[in-house]
Amino acid sequence: MAVHIEFRARAIDLAEQELDPSKGVAGWLKERLQDSGIEVGLPTRYDWGYEIPIHAGGREYFAGPPSRKDTASSWHLFVEKRRSLADRVMGRTIMAGTEPMAMLIREIISRDPQFKVVRVQEKQ
């Protein structure tokens, strides 16, 4: 299960800052997480978007935006905790909107005056 956070730009559109809009969002999130004292790896490009590895509190997460081809002011980020093989085989759901990393990323977005969190959803 992952947590999806939708947010909108109030002023500056991240898409205008990069040729690849998803790369701009991934870079922005990486910097903000580092500013919060979180250990993060480099954003990695996948066919579906970007993934940022995150290590915090003895747990591993990944977060990032899906690929975007338009320049709309609405953005999505997913946040997911890495699950063990046993968790996957047993079908254990271990990520919720109240997970500390999901709450931190939502707070990071909310603190930035150029963005407004629109919706937070837990998705399978």
Question: How many domains, in number, for the residues?
Answer: 1
Mean pLDDT: 79
| Number of strand elements | 7
* Gyration radius from CA atoms, angstroms: 14 Å
**Based on the structure given, which CATH architecture is correct?**
2-Layer Sandwich
Portion of residues within helices = 25-40%
Overall CATH class: Alpha Beta
Secondary-structure-based class equals alpha+beta
Separate helix tally: 3
Strand % is 35-45%
Describe this structure in words.
- The mean pLDDT is about 80.
- By secondary structure, this protein is an alpha+beta fold.
- It has a single domain, classed as TATA-Binding Protein.
- It has helices at about 20-35, 85-90, 100-110; strands at about 1-10, 40, 45, 50-55, 60-65, 75-80, 115-124.
- It is globular, with a radius of gyration of 14 Å.
Give me the secondary-structure topology.
Elements (H helix, E strand, L loop, with lengths): L1 E8 L11 H15 L3 E2 L3 E3 L2 E8 L2 E6 L9 E8 L3 H6 L9 H12 L3 E9 L1
Antiparallel strand pairs: 1-6, 1-7, 2-4, 3-4, 4-5, 5-6
List keywords for this structure.
124 residues; 7 strands; 3 helices; alpha+beta; 7-stranded antiparallel beta sheet; globular; TATA-Binding Protein; 27% helix
Could you give a quick summary of the protein structure above?
It is built from three helices and seven strands; from the N terminus they run βαβββββααβ.
